[in-house]
Amino acid sequence: MALHNRVNGKVLKERSRRSLEKRITLSFYKYFQNHDPKQYRDQLYRQWSELAVMGRIYVAEEGINAQISVPELRFEEFKKALGQCGLAGVWLNFAVEDDSWSFFKLRIVVKNKILTDGLNDKTFDVTNSAEHLDAESFNKLTDDPGTFVVDMRNHYESEIGHFENAILPDTDSFRETLRVVEKQLEHKKESHIIMYCTGGIRCEKASAYYKHKGFKNVYQLDGGIIKYATTIKEKGLRNKFKGKNFVFDQRFSERISEEVISRCHQCGKPCDTHINCKNDGCHLLFIQCDQCSIKYNACCSEECSEIIKLPDEKQKELRSGINRGAKIYKKGRSPKLIYKS
Q1: Measured on CA atoms in the order 340, 272, 115, 208, is the torsion positive or negative?
Q2: Are 154 and 272 in contact (CB under 8 A)?
Q3: Which of 197, 271, 289, 300 is flagged as catalytic?
Q4: By residue range, what is the domain housing residue 162?
Q5: Where a domain ends, among 68, 89, 110?
Q6: Do 82 and 131 fall into the same domain?
Q7: Mean pLDDT of 96-105
Q8: In a domain? residue 10
Q9: Backbone angles phi, psi at 148, to 5 degrees
């Protein structure tokens, strides 16, 4: 069998939209010694393709980081398959809101690291992570005004949702966040510092690094925002998270509370809906309300709105040879967007 997808992405998206199959969206990660990431990647692809798993998975010598969806009828089979891959007992973070359309293909990539952090792992013990706090302990410790709560995510994630009174680094990457937070809290090494992220993986590495750098009382939210949202609902706890949780799939976000804390980047109205610019030569990620979506044809600007009206061949010609990656991953930092925070 081919160990990669050969079907056009637009065809797969349309196929997924039409499917009535109920799927379960989840994420997980695990740090472990993986001596042959390429062989491991191929093993996963064979097994998970048979189970109709879709998603984005990174494997490296240091472990695995996965965001996937699994057919509900095959979920028990999938859990058994995890054991065959050395992942028995790994914590699975289930989506807070699930429309069964989070991913439309299976993509497994071998990387140098499962999380790009810019750190030299040989200089510190990456397994010496901080104490994990459950939702109840997190709420209690964050009631203390002397506690610092730190969002370890990027600016476009925290913009639509974050915990009360959290420090929100205005950064584009985890690598940058690590440095900014260290500098910002360098004189608070004796204070209680609680970090959080989407599902926990960034805090797992960050907490070990900060402990190595001399921070004495470092904690991390167990299972990240996803597990917190599930736990407070199950136990009837106070919700300290405001807004939406950004997720890295077709849904873009999950609503955790009813507050809308961000605004449309084009008109300034309250809004927390992310989209990618419809112009394939741009694809900028930004926040757009329904009215502006109509006005700009789901594009980030009048310029892009005019481009998508052109014949397909002309559009291809305009974007030929352009590397749009850097632009996409600036995630909304564009002079075209008047109301970007």
Answers
A1: positive
A2: no
A3: 197
A4: 122-231
A5: 110
A6: no
A7: 82
A8: no
A9: -100, 125
